[in-house]
């Protein structure tokens, strides 16, 4: 029984096909590429507005060189957003609760920003390892600390997303299990937990959107340092 | 259909056109646009055009009689290209009916999401069936 709370984080497979394949391909289905008309339909207008909003938000702090990353960052944001939100539907599988997948997203992108910086302006990106005006005796220690904080970034990126999504899903399942179990014995308390469940669901929708944004925003901040 | 009003729809088109864009012509099944039932019961249709017998190969599944079903199934294209084409045709039919319309709504998307939930339930049924609230199973 205790194990079954974590059952939702293992990708079920039917006929040898894991569900994670379907959940990863599903966002591509929901965002059709617009046709050749200016004004297509309400849905494509909403989609274009959303993409424009995201791109603008991400690209404003970056300089001209960083704008090459627009396609990458916007599509990453849209993918994470869709996967996180689809994962809140009942019985569905959320690929972003898997640490391996989030690390696979975080590590190459972080490394790309780092290598871009080291290749294009090596001294400026190495200068990030030491804040200005540090007292001389502290320099070795600070360089060690800054190097660690630089190297830990991809881990933090991946773990942040995983932990947020996992914790949310676990909380929803715990509270809903509690309210179902309490319904026959203590109906009043069960109604209270159902109200909490409703509020928590709203919170989780917000978390799903915010975490997708935070992931991409942090990547763009790392890019900003290095470009 | 609403009657045309002055300047309705932002002056883009008449509201008569607002229902949907016509789907693109499908090369493999040209007769699949309208349900062509082999009953010539309606005199309104029969004076316009005689009911053309559709070859069994091009019939829709809903028009196939039960006895013809094995023959119909045998005539389907089960090569990877054929399956891909069928998937693409299905997607385009859905897309042109629900998404690529001027006044699209939540209906089309909700349908897909509901289907996704059902498929996910089927997929994880072998796990979920252990979580029933029964004592002996």
UniProtKB/TrEMBL annotation, chain A:
- Subcellular localization: Mitochondrion inner membrane
Any one GO molecular function term? proton-transporting ATP synthase activity, rotational mechanism
Sorted alphabetically, which Gene3D superfamilies does this protein's record hold? ATP synthase, F0 complex, subunit A (1.20.120.220)
The residues that cross the membrane are 12-31, 69-89, 101-118, 138-159, 171-199, 205-223
Q: Name one Pfam family in it.
A: ATP-synt_A
- Record keywords, A-Z: ATP synthesis, CF(0), Hydrogen ion transport, Ion transport, Membrane, Mitochondrion, Mitochondrion inner membrane, Transmembrane, Transmembrane helix, Transport
CDD domains (UniProt xref)? ATP-synt_Fo_a_6
The record gives the membrane topology as: Multi-pass membrane protein
Q: Which chemical reaction does it catalyze?
A: H(+)(in) = H(+)(out)
Q: Name one GO cellular component term.
A: mitochondrial inner membrane
| Record-stated family | Belongs to the ATPase A chain family.
Which NCBIfam families does this UniProt record tie to the protein? ATP_synt_6_or_A
List the protein's name: ATP synthase subunit a
Q: Its gene?
A: ATP6
From TrEMBL, chain B:
User: Disordered: where is this region?
Assistant: 1-54
Quick check: keyword Magnesium in the entry? no
* Alphabetized GO MF terms: proton-transporting ATP synthase activity, rotational mechanism
Protein localization: Mitochondrion inner membrane
Keywords tagged on the record:
Acetylation, ATP synthesis, CF(0), Hydrogen ion transport, Ion transport, Membrane, Mitochondrion, Mitochondrion inner membrane, Phosphoprotein, Transmembrane, Transmembrane helix, Transport
Q: How does it sit in the membrane?
A: Single-pass membrane protein
Query: Which regions are flagged for Gly residues bias?
Result: 1-12
Membrane-spanning intervals of the chain: 105-125
Q: Which GO terms describe its cellular component?
A: mitochondrial inner membrane; proton-transporting ATP synthase complex
Q: Which GO terms describe its biological process?
A: proton motive force-driven mitochondrial ATP synthesis
Q: Which Pfam families match?
A: WRW
Domain of life, per lineage: Eukaryota
The annotated subunit structure for this chain is: Component of the ATP synthase complex composed at least of ATP5F1A/subunit alpha, ATP5F1B/subunit beta, ATP5MC1/subunit c (homooctomer), MT-ATP6/subunit a, MT-ATP8/subunit 8, ATP5ME/subunit e, ATP5MF/subunit f, ATP5MG/subunit g, ATP5MK/subunit k, ATP5MJ/subunit j, ATP5F1C/subunit gamma, ATP5F1D/subunit delta, ATP5F1E/subunit epsilon, ATP5PF/subunit F6, ATP5PB/subunit b, ATP5PD/subunit d, ATP5PO/subunit OSCP.
| Role this protein plays | Subunit f, of the mitochondrial membrane ATP synthase complex (F(1)F(0) ATP synthase or Complex V) that produces ATP from ADP in the presence of a proton gradient across the membrane which is generated by electron transport complexes of the respiratory chain. ATP synthase complex consist of a soluble F(1) head domain - the catalytic core - and a membrane F(1) domain - the membrane proton channel. These two domains are linked by a central stalk rotating inside the F(1) region and a stationary peripheral stalk.
Q: Which family does it belong to?
A: Belongs to the ATPase F chain family.
Name the chain's protein. ATP synthase F(0) complex subunit f, mitochondrial
